[in-house]
Write a structure and sequence with these properties.
elongated; 82% helix
C-alpha cells in the first residue's frame, strides 16, 4: 500500500474530519477518479453555507467524500 494511503487509513481510524482534510490535500494522481468527490467534500465541510447557496447539500457532499475515501482504500488494498 502506498505510504500516503496508509497515512489516510491511520488518520481515518483516528479522526474522520482530519482524514478528509488530509485526503483533499493529496495529489490528484494519487486520488484518481475519487479526487473530485474528496475535494468537494472537504470544501463543503469547510464552507457549508457557500455550498448551500450553490444548491449543494454539504452533508451529502461530505458523505460522498467519505465513501470515495473508502473506495480508494479498498482499491489500494485490492491492488496489493
Amino acid at each position: 500500500m502506498r505510504y500516503q494511503i496508509q497515512l489516510l487509513v491511520e488518520k481515518l481510524a483516528e479522526d474522520r474530519v482530519q482524514a478528509l482534510k488530509f485526503a483533499a490535500s493529496l495529489s490528484g494522481g494519487l486520488l484518481g477518479n475519487h479526487r473530485d468527490a474528496i475535494q468537494r467534500g472537504w470544501a463543503a465541510r469547510s464552507s457549508p453555507s457557500l455550498y448551500q447557496e450553490m444548491g449543494v447539500d454539504p452533508v451529502e457532499a461530505e458523505r460522498s467524500a467519505y465513501q470515495a475515501m473508502d473506495e480508494l482504500i479498498s482499491a489500494e488494498r485490492a491492488a496489493d
